[in-house]
Amino acid sequence: MLLLLLLPVVALLLSSSPGDLSAGVAHPLFASALWLSAKTTLISLVIIALTGTPLAWWLAVTRSPAARAVELVVDLPIVLPPAVIGIALLQTFGRNGLVGGWLDALGLQIPFSTTAVVIAQVTVAAPFFVQSAAAAFRQVDNDLMLVARTLGESPRGAFFRVALPVALPGLIGGAALSWARALGEFGATLLFAGNLQDVSQTIPLAILTALESDVRAALALALVLAGVAIVLLLGLRGLPKLLAGGRQ
After folding, report:
1. Nearest CA-CA partner of 25 in 234, 221, 248, 232
2. How far apart are the C-alpha atoms of 28 and 123, rounded to whole Å?
3. Which CATH number does the domain housing residue 136 bear?
4. Helix (H, G, I), strand (E, B), or coil: what is residue 94?
5. Residue 177: in which H helix or E strand, if any?
6. For residue 232, pLDDT beyond 80
């Protein structure tokens, strides 16, 4: 099992010489895909953090059956194949979709656009943030919140001054996982946003396109994704120790 997990990474690292890597980076697909992925994933992460944090807090403090039902909805994109999510988004926002007709009447066409890329990324990546954030909020001691309230803090003030700082490592870890998932998103983006250069061609889609014409560009893009994944993994492993050391 260890060999099965390790050998593909080693093969990827050894498959490209510095000259091939340089030629791949110079390929027209590389810069445009890298910029589009960076832009869309940053927008997606901001949306996920702003909307997912209050949802995660509500899930953490609510014990009603409705909260458990919402948890199932949140987890659903994790188990659904990305292709299914892409088709579902088309049936939602397409011209003949659930809300697509209303949007079309307003002059808004979402499929096969950069906006569609962001929607696909948010849909598939949000559960990773919400799960981690909810788990972190559940670790906040209720006594700390009660003390904050007795000292005159409003519920909102207690959240921002007590709960949020205590749960911050979990939120950062969830954001990193969510961003990595958005960066690697392929299936839902392809079906819902297409594979249009400078519009919806993110790094994974550019790898697919480059394989048909210039393998060096595909390898360069693959190495970028692999490098980001390794950096994130090391960062997530070292984050708890770093934050613990900063509090001492």
Report:
1. 221
2. 29
3. 1.10.3720.10
4. coil
5. helix 164-183
6. no
Confidence at 107, pLDDT banded by 50, 70, 90: confident
Instruction: Enumerate residues 6+ apart whose C-beta is below 8 A from 222.
Output: 12, 207
Burial of 144 (0-12, 13-18, 19+ CB in 10 A): middle
Question: Could you tell me the CA-to-CA distances from 245 to 133, 170, 206, 248 in Å, in that order?
Answer: 21, 16, 41, 5
Which amino acid is located at 231 in the chain?
Answer: V
Domain that residue 172 falls in:
38-247
Interatomic CA distance for residues 86 and 200, integer angstroms: 14
| Predicted structure pTM score | 0.88
- In a domain, residue 186? The reply is yes
pLDDT score, position 241: 60
Residue 233 lies in a domain: yes
pLDDT bucket at 95, cuts 50 / 70 / 90? confident
Given a cut of 70, whether residue 247 has pLDDT beyond it is no
Dist CA 90 CA 94 (whole Å):
5
The C-alpha angle with vertex 189 and arms to 185 and 195, in degrees rounded to 5, equals 115
Residue-wise burial string across 89-110, b where 16 or more C-beta atoms lie within 10 A, e elsewhere: bbebbbeebeebeebbeeeeeb
- Find where tokens 């060999």 sit: 3
Tell me the per-residue pLDDT of 52-62, one tens digit each, with 9 for 90 and over. 999 999 999 99
Selected residue with higher pLDDT from 48 and 210: 48
Whether 178 is covered by a domain: the verdict is: yes
The chain-wide mean pLDDT, for the chain, equals 88
Tally of residues, the chain: 248
